[in-house]
Amino acid sequence: MAEDKPPFIDPLNAFCKDTEAYLVGNTDGPLSGLTFAAKDIFDIEGHVTGGGNPDWKATHSPANHNAWIVQTLVDAGATMVGKTHTDELTRGILGENAHYGTPINSKAPARVPGGSSSGSAAAVAGGLVDFALGSDTGGSVRIPASFCGLYGLRPTHGRVLLDGILTQSPSYDTIGWFTRDASTYARIAEVVFGNPIPDTIPSHLVIAEDAFEEADRDVSDVLRPVAEKISAMVRNSSQVRLAPSGLIAWASQQNILQSEEAWDSVKDWVDTVNPRFSFWVSERYNLAINLTQDQITEAALLREQVRTRMDEVFANGGIVCLPTAVAPAPLLGLPASAKKEIQGRLSHLTCIAGTTGRPQLSLPLGEVNGLPVGLSFLGEHGSDEELIGFARIVEEAMVT
Amino acid sequence: MAEDKPPFIDPLNAFCKDTEAYLVGNTDGPLSGLTFAAKDIFDIEGHVTGGGNPDWKATHSPANHNAWIVQTLVDAGATMVGKTHTDELTRGILGENAHYGTPINSKAPARVPGGSSSGSAAAVAGGLVDFALGSDTGGSVRIPASFCGLYGLRPTHGRVLLDGILTQSPSYDTIGWFTRDASTYARIAEVVFGNPIPDTIPSHLVIAEDAFEEADRDVSDVLRPVAEKISAMVRNSSQVRLAPSGLIAWASQQNILQSEEAWDSVKDWVDTVNPRFSFWVSERYNLAINLTQDQITEAALLREQVRTRMDEVFANGGIVCLPTAVAPAPLLGLPASAKKEIQGRLSHLTCIAGTTGRPQLSLPLGEVNGLPVGLSFLGEHGSDEELIGFARIVEEAMVT
Predict the structure, then answer these.
(1) B338 in contact with A at a CB cutoff of 8 Å?
(2) Can you spell out the DSSP letters for B157-206?
(3) How confident is the model at residue A61 (pLDDT cuts 50, 70, 90)?
(4) Do B161 and B221 belong together in one domain?
(5) Residues A117-147: pLDDT tens digits?
(6) Which domain range does residue B167 map to?
(7) Closest-CA residue in chain B for A337?
(8) Pairing with B264, which of A133, A158, B155, B231 sits 20 to 30 Å away (CA)?
(9) B207 contacts B239 by C-beta, under 8 angstroms
(10) How many contacts does A have with B, using Cβ atoms within 8 A?
(11) Residues of chain B with pLDDT under 50
(12) Do A276 and B337 touch (CB under 8 A)?
């Protein structure tokens, strides 16, 4: 391509410094004119996928092709300008990487950006690119979207081809992206899903009572009125408690089963390389190492209960409305105990989509003391386009 | 001091590259003319004690005084030329440091030097210094002494002041040193202990049958005749099985109790800093995190049984003779499973002195296929001088 590469500025520590992954987009595609970045778990031909860990990077070869979604976006006209920081091997939800530092959350500079798609969220929030690719296994798109005031979808599990990305936990891994507005989100979604994004309003909206109770009081106080306002746009609405056994129990099973898969994905490499991890990452792998068969069996049973219960909730179709995160972005550099507590609490809400494979879109519809908080739409399997289409309608309604 | 610092050569990756810790020895002391190095867990005034982990180094201040033993040796005339590599925070027995690389075992270059006092052993074995300081918590002097063909003492627990060293597990930590010959060992010991080293032969020598059985067949085949030869120098000798419940059980309790203390020593720092460790180091800390109170109680009971049994073995005084290590130095870069197996097996013999606080001196008295293997004298509490004195006699007897 003849285009010149513009000078690259990254005041937010969002980008990997040693990877010049620049792919000029097709000149007359539907995404022409848009720039994007990709989390450093997406393969780019000729570059090593670093995965946020220097020992991973040092022991892997350059990729031999572009990840399917990257190639699709470039073919559709978007220009990729770089790769972005991630929590180590996607094992984190706050975005603090012990090797490469923490990308700056320009919407809340004293706070974490959220992770693991930390650099992608920071780059979009700070206006460095129009959109950015991330992945969501346990909340890694939804949480940074909420913390940085962005739109971010965890698609239906299996809908976006996982070709050319670093695997964490196959039963949970999904690819999503971040934008600052719903219409750009929809524009990209049409390319990714190959379908038009409809302007339809769901027939039914369920407000997840227990999810709002799980969130900090000030988060609920801000988001609950927004949810009410949106429910007024929908023909039928109802209030439901999702988790009879409690959201904490719901989260515990995913923590166990996801940890087990995540360890399975890397254990041969770990045994060979003896890589360096920050302690909290290694602690999560060790959780898996120390699991008993009883714990795994019990978690698998609970997983079935969660899935059955959510099928009931969706028996009449529609969407479920819940806070994306229990709290706004935590302060940078919290002590370990405080970090672990918030990590645990975040999973109480993220596990619902994660466990059931349903799509969940976070919308930047609230602020608590000037800090962004996201409201989420959780939909039926395969309803990704409808969620995004409704978000576009809601965005317009909120602005006007 | 007026002496010029000679050019420093380190072809063995034994020394820390970024620490110029050079202390000129007193000109007319008993150790004048000797050069030494110290494992990078010994404080040197004005230098940060790195402990084999870059995040430890980055988060600690320079030491405000020299460790007691370093100052004592310099006052006695020895010149300290540098600090040496260690396994991370002394948590390793093979000497492979993921951050700084593996010191070269010049006696077996395709093999590990042993750890955690890896650089000190490598520096002495390679002739870069006359002696070097290490520490022994679970075998970190004895094992590298065996692997590198050196003399190395784990002193009676509590006999050498632990002032100015990085703590691993206080109930087990000791300071030792390496030399190439027994007479230099004795010369240093007279300074450290403040007592003359006697030329006395113990009244009784016990050959630890089960310890010889625990070692590889070719190690026993080489060391057993040496032990017989030494027992012929002693008035009474006998053959005893030390561990009625088996040496594997004996080692398991120390693994648990030492892990718990080691984690206790660093957990506040780990929680604050979230440091990077190689995975195998973090796995050992996680062992402690996941211990149950039942496991700890059971281990403490077993520890008492070990101590009582060894008091019985020493009822008639004398020394116990056993192989230092179950095998010669393993090859560099073994797979994790093989490494863990050898680490576990090494502890079956090292735990005896570790658990009972008794002194153990490894003597370089054997070779298996050209690889050094050490024979050990285990003594009564406080008999450090006698062990070293007898080693000097044995050395002479073996040479002549």
Answers:
(1) no
(2) TTSS--TTB--S-TTT--EEEEESSHHHHHHHHHHHHSSPPP----SEEE
(3) very high
(4) no
(5) 999 999 999 999 999 999 999 999 999 999 9
(6) 35-193
(7) B271
(8) B155
(9) yes
(10) 69
(11) 1-2
(12) no
Chain A residue with Cα closest to B290: A290
Distance, CA of A192 to CA of A379 (rounded, Å): 18
Task: Give the pLDDT of residue A1.
Answer: 43
Nearest to B274 among A272, A275, A280 (CB): A280
pLDDT of residue A7: 67
From B275's Cα to the closest Cα of chain A, the distance in A is 5
**C-alpha distances in Å from residue B1, one per residue of B24, B25, B27:** 7, 9, 9
Task: Give the mean model confidence (pLDDT) for residues A383-392.
Answer: 98
* CA B324 – CA B379 distance, rounded (Å): 14
pLDDT tens for each residue of B314-332: 998 999 999 999 999 999 9
Give chain A's radius of gyration (CA, Å). Answer: 20
- Asked if residue A387 and residue A297 are part of one domain, the reply reads yes
pLDDT of residue A294: 96
Beta-bridged to residue A152, according to DSSP, are A178, A362
**How does the average pLDDT of chain A come out, rounded?**
95
Q: Do A278 and B278 touch (CB under 8 A)?
A: no
State how beta strands B236-240 and B204-208 pair.
Answer: parallel
B76 plus B148 within the same structural domain = yes
Q: How far lies A385's CA from each of A13, A161, A380, in Å?
A: 32, 16, 11
Residue type (1 letter), A195: N
- Measured from the Cβ of residue A221, the count of other Cβ atoms closer than 10 Å reads 13
If asked whether residues B168 and B59 sit together in one domain, one would say: yes
The larger pLDDT score, comparing residue A338 to residue B18, is at A338
Residue with tokens 């949810």: A227
